[in-house]
């Protein structure tokens, strides 16, 4: 991969057009983020700010957070509940579907001024996206004739997706937000890269959460754009072979947490895999790890920066003890989590390298494209993504 | 309520104010030591500012105000604090940095028996190699202190941060 794929403005702009506004479904939020009629959140399609709403009939809408009049970004709150959006500049008013419902002094004052007689409010609503809510997950697209989300995910990936989003009611536990000085694709790569898991995240190996000998499977959809890293945690503490210990620099043997209950695994999924880290092209990751459930929304902010919006959730059926268990376990992820800190730091290091070094072409050579899918020492999923990317970008 | 008790009230309030002033000074000194330990990266020492059953969390203000319980850091009991300290010292990978933790505007709200309820503002400045110093976190502590064997310790600390969109990641606690 040449450096310019991650740093060039023209590539970045082409991505906005061909990827985020192209033939893809963008993740914009979870139904549990807008649980009641009239609820809304700020979100993004690519770099474009949007608002996601639930209307009075429980339909979902996604429209631009930009007034149709002079273009003001009218919604300034992370979330809220309302019947209409009133742009503060000249009070143009929109309903929960983004339709324009009021223009002050539309007919002018005393017969003077006002909008031209032919002005049709129906033609001046907020620019909206086609929306599909699939199993509690809200997607939006600018494409007129997208296939259903189910087909977009493809059979194998969809099966894994349906385990995380099993159709039971979810409850939002909260959000994390961070900016990261890295290209948005680096975040996709990070979750398609099982190789780093035991090397960077020594917390995992030290406390027995994930080791190289764990059974695993790296699944990629037929087109190469989505992926799932599946793993199985053995009962009890896994063995880390001496050979592996020597490869992992920071490995320490025999360490135990003071509070081991944090790593308890309460069985709740209909799957033999205890963990699945998924990437859904182009801007979503979904994770279930032990009893952690989260999604991440990747927002590109120029070639050298991205924003992450993490939504962490549980189930409506959780009792208080289960909620607290999830909250404790979530110390592992997020921008203050044991793994989250390391991923964000490592990606910053990569972008620093990309931005200010002698140009070169990066390597992703590990593993074989046609070998069995049960090794983690591979970059197969990253290569698959770039094969697809190249095609989508017509590069 | 008798007239006598009512007449006593202003005096009692004055006595309270004096006591609160003493508590405030004591808490400020506590914070100076607390910040010093974190600035020096002495995370194990940081754990010793807490009671064994302490609750400690760092929570984004938008979550806090929406009643969403998720913490950026969420620890029940000193064991979890120690595990975080251990990870920061031994397993975590992060760029080296200088920390500067400012704690101010201490206000004592309530003192009952061995406990004191108080709040304070905090500001964490971080400086990475060859990068300008930047505000990493700005927020408020909502605290419950407890005096155990004469020493003030934190039994509950909620760090509610205004800087909701975090700059990359928060490595050290506040
Ligand atoms: S810019 Fe929104 S009403 Fe004028
Ligand atoms: Fe990672």
Essential attributes:
heterodimer; A: alpha+beta; Naphthalene 1,2-dioxygenase Alpha Subunit, Chain A, domain 1; 2 domains; four-stranded antiparallel sheet; about 25% helix; B: about 170 residues; alpha+beta; Nuclear Transport Factor 2, Chain: A; six-stranded mixed sheet; disordered N terminus; binds FE2/S2 (inorganic) cluster; binds fe (ii) ion
Describe this structure in words.
The complex is a heterodimer of chains A (395) and B (174). By secondary structure, chain A is α+β, with helices and mostly antiparallel strands. Chain A has two domains: 22-133, Rieske [2Fe-2S] iron-sulphur domain (Rieske Iron-sulfur Protein), CATH 2.102.10.10; 154-393, Naphthalene 1,2-dioxygenase Alpha Subunit, Chain A, domain 1 (Alpha-Beta Complex). Chain A contains eleven helices and 17 strands. Chain A has helices at 4-7, 9-20, 149-153, 155-164, 184-191, 195-200, 202-206, 242-247, 320-329, 338-355, 380-393; strands at residues 26-30, 39-45, 48-54, 60-64, 79-81, 84-86, 93-95, 100-102, 130-134, 137-141, 170-180, 215-220, 227-232, 275-280, 284-289, 292-300, 306-315. In chain A, the strands form four sheets. Chain A has a seven-stranded antiparallel sheet, sandwiched between helices. A four-stranded antiparallel sheet of chain A has the order 4-3-2-5, with no helix packed on it. In chain A, strands 1-10-9 form a three-stranded antiparallel sheet, with no helix packed on it. In chain A, a hairpin with a 2-residue loop joins strand 15 and strand 16. Chain A is globular and about 90 Å long. Chain B has 174 residues and is of the alpha+beta class. Chain B has a single domain (6-161), classed as Roll (Nuclear Transport Factor 2, Chain: A), CATH 3.10.450.50. In chain B, 35% of the residues lie in helices and 43% in strands. Chain B contains four helices and seven strands, in the order H-H-E-H-E-H-E-E-E-E-E. Chain B has helices spanning 3-39, 43-47, 61-65, 78-91, and strands spanning 50-60, 73-76, 97-112, 115-128, 134-148, 151-161, 165-167. Chain B has a six-stranded mixed sheet. The model of chain B is unreliable at 1-7 (pLDDT under 50). The interface between A and B is large, with 44 and 38 residues. Strand 11 (170-180) of chain A pairs parallel with strand 7 (165-167) of chain B, so a sheet runs across the interface. The structure holds FE2/S2 (inorganic) cluster and fe (ii) ion.
